Amino acid sequence: MIVRKAKPEDASRLSELYTQLVNNPAVKVEPEQIQALYDNARSKLFVCDYQGNVVGSALVSLCSDVMFRKQPFAVVENVIVDANNDLQNASTTLDSPQIFGVCGGP
């Protein structure tokens, strides 16, 4: 199981996962928006990839802060692990140091 940045070709699978999260038929994940996040220096959409299948995701946004000079903090939102998947490690993997490394953190 690996954590990687989401790619536009993940859009369909991410739509399925987000529908599990909010159960709203209006959910529409567009490849162009995933690409925009991929290229964005302050926000990243990560997926948990298990043997080529996306089984989870998390959106991480870096925010500026005044408390510790120029040290940003991160907000993690829309964390989802496939409800139909029995991989309990997916949620732990999404909470891993791999995300901070990809975001440019320690």
In short:
This protein is 32% helix and 30% strand. The protein is α+β, with helices and mostly antiparallel strands and 106 residues long.
State the main characteristics.
single chain, alpha+beta, Aminopeptidase, four-stranded antiparallel beta sheet, globular, disordered C terminus
Topology:
Blueprint: E1 2-5, H1 11-22, H2 31-39, E2 43-50, E3 53-63, E4 73-81, H3 89-94, H4 97-103
Antiparallel strand pairs: 1-2, 2-3, 3-4
Structure description:
- With 106 residues, this protein is α+β, with helices and mostly antiparallel strands.
- It has one domain: Aminopeptidase (3-Layer(aba) Sandwich), CATH 3.40.630.
- The chain has helices at residues 11-22, 31-39, 89-94, 97-103, and strands spanning 2-5, 43-50, 53-63, 73-81.
- Strands 1-2-3-4 form a 4-stranded antiparallel beta sheet, sandwiched between helices.
- Strand 2 and strand 3 (53-63) form a beta hairpin.
- The protein is globular, with a radius of gyration of 14 Å.
CATH superfamily: Gcn5-related N-acetyltransferase (GNAT)
**What is the CA-based Rg, rounded?**
14 Å
Number of helical elements = 4
The largest pleated sheet is described as: 4 strands, antiparallel
| Helical residue percent band | 25-40%
| Strand fraction | 25-35%
Number of strands: 4
CATH topology, which one?
Answer: Aminopeptidase
**SSE order, as H and E?**
EHHEEEHH
Q: What's the pLDDT, averaged over the residues?
A: 83
Question: Which class best fits the helix and strand makeup?
Answer: alpha+beta
Q: How do the strands of the widest beta sheet line up side by side?
A: 1-2-3-4
Uncertain spans: 100-106
Overall geometric form: globular
Count of distinct structural domains: 1
Based on the coordinates given, report the CATH architecture.
3-Layer(aba) Sandwich
Distance between the termini: 21 Å
CATH level-1 class: Alpha Beta
